[in-house]
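Regression test attached.
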Amino acid sequence: MNMNNIWFIMKRELSGYFATPVAYVFIISFLLLTGFSTFFVGNFFERGEADLYPFFSIHPWIYVLLIPAISMRLWSEERKSGSIELLMTLPISVLEAVLGKFLAAWAFTGLALFLNFPLWITVNYLGSPDNGIIVAGFLGSLLMAGGFLAIGACISASTKNQVIAFVLSLIVSLIFVLSGYGIVLDFFSSWAPATLVDAVSSFSFLTHFDAISKGVIDMRDIFYFASVIAVWLFANAIVVNARKAD
Amino acid sequence: MTLRIEIDNLAKYFGEIKAVDGVSFSVKKGEVLGFLGPNGAGKSTTMKMVTGFLTPTRGTVRVCGHDVLTDPIAVKANLGYLPEGAPAYADMTPDGFLRFIADIRGLAGAEKTRAVAIAAERAQIKHVMFQPIETLSKGYKRRVGLAQAILHNPPVLILDEPTDGLDPNQKHEVRTLINEMAHDKAIIISTHILEEVHALCHRNVVIAKGQVQFDGTPHELEAMSRYHNAVCVSVVNVDDDSLAAFLWALPFVDHIEALSGDRGFRVYPEQGKQITAELSQAIRDNNWQVASLHAEHGRLDEVFRTITMGKS
């Protein structure tokens, strides 16, 4: 594994985001959505609590919608334009390319997430929140975004069509979120054994993110997201290898 | 003479379709190999296997001694590759694109700046270095791809249709560039433009239906033509019938045919020998006056058709 190659690919990919309006459209949509839902859906003011729980709790749903828009182009564009032939005949390994692209998308999402910092300032101005919890929330959110991105990257490698990549990523992401959502779990618990219900919910991003966003940093939750990222990126490399020339 | 590219019994099947079926040839340093064949003959598939983009169904490829299956990174480091259609990152500028390639190729600092400048100079894209690649014309895109391929001065170049879509001036420039680089590299270029056989190639491999049909020099390729060493002759002060009778009687003539739409005959020699000198001497011995006399080298388009459509 050559770290330099990963860095060069990441750099190229990142500069690609800002060469087109994609980056700005995404960041503005992301900030509008998080801002809107924090105040109007999460009732930030009415709750009267000095924390960012309303802000973080909406993140899984926003990511389901917006992350596929970032990940869809990662590989399908390369396959469509044929530049994948160029990339894959440069002296780099598939895994280096996969990691470089993933890290670029992750860094970009991290930037969008970081641009929510005025909210952090606001909550500190209005009250005295536990900033440790907020830091944990940001880190947890970033980890979860990585999970969604890894799913989207792998799916993007399986098609030349960005719209298909977007829709499929959205559906798979939604499944990973919904499996921990109350209504869905209630549906299972009405007939399925408790162990199955637990198994389903333990696969959910919601279950693992909820604890982190409340400030509880459990190694198991971190390990969960790390494994999701690793498994999907590994699958991504396999898919790229198998489908690159199609 | 060291072998830079060794291809042995290479094959690629896509399901039932045998795109490439047992291709073997090699390329030495200093050699430009013209890879000819009709569309769909397996040229691009072969090149994709040599460059490590496609995994062969069977067979081996070695580039500068490295096996593409066991050591793909070393193979790719020694290669410059222009894929078919010259794909690039459309939203980048040639400058940004070449710098990215230089990074990956392990060039840094002054060395990188120099490599990018030289490649841009050679591919003649200096004045479009800061325009997005997607806004460039087809010819410029192709040259950006070429600059990318030669950037790290690789010992082996694989160019898939480097002159496709270029105008005659651009074609000439690209051919000049390839000729300049030929002496210290091993180069494979695929083409279906037959004039490039003479303009560029030291050797030709013709493939059709996934198999090598011919491997030899451009001269040998021409010699396969039925027109090879045939002489077109017309004489001023003699009628065609007498001339025909005279030509048939010459010992070194195999047969003759009338030139269509013109006076005179095409004279085919016995066993493909050169007969221009003897023929002109024989006519002058008769005190006839030659109106025109020229030997044909052979017609590549006809040879190409014969080879690739199956021998009749």
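Expected vs. actual: identical. The mean pLDDT of chain A is 89.
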